[in-house]
Amino acid sequence: MLKKLLLSFILTILVVFVLFIAYNSKKAEIETKGGLKIQNWSSSLGSINETDLDKTIFSYSVYLTNQNEKSIFIRSIQPSVNEAVKYKIISIETVVSVNKDIKPNETIQINGEIILDTKGLLKQDIVKLEPFITDIKVSTEETISLKR
Questions:
Q1: Going residue by residue through the chain (148 aa), what tens digit of pLDDT does each one get?
Q2: Nearest C-alpha neighbor of 127 from the set 63, 52, 45, 61
Q3: Burial class (CB in 10 A: 0-12, 13-18, 19+), 115
Q4: Which pTM does this prediction carry?
């Protein structure tokens, strides 16, 4: 009886130990940081001017944070747009040149705009095209040291 109780106790300790290791392993994975992250973004929609109501400007701001331990040079960003909006873009260029170093834990604001052909569309029709931006492509440059 004592052996069964002792064996049961040891097995319980082992199970608790294994669960504790598994929990801490998952916790470490969740807390891992690194890379670039969009902390916040905002957008607005409006007509280019009062006389040309067939063109709509989609303006956006992206707040990009460097969560790496080293600075990262951001060359440019380019928004990826949804398929419905893709064919309505009349902007010549959607790439936003940044050309800035972002230090570790630093956040920068990047502004951009896309001009859309909205001829024949009502405000409700334009809103139905959302989300205009689905992703942001970030072009970076990194210098890798040859020192050992």
A1: 666 555 555 555 655 555 566 665 554 444 445 689 998 999 998 888 888 778 889 999 999 999 988 899 999 999 998 888 888 889 888 999 999 999 999 999 999 999 999 888 888 888 888 888 899 999 998 777 788 6
A2: 45
A3: middle
A4: 0.71
What type of residue sits at position 26? K
Whole-angstrom distance, CA of residue 61 vs CA of residue 96: 11
The tokens 């940081």 sit on which residue?
A: 33
> How many CA atoms are closer than 13 Å to the CA of 3, on its beta-carbon side?
0
108: which 2 tokens? 């920068």
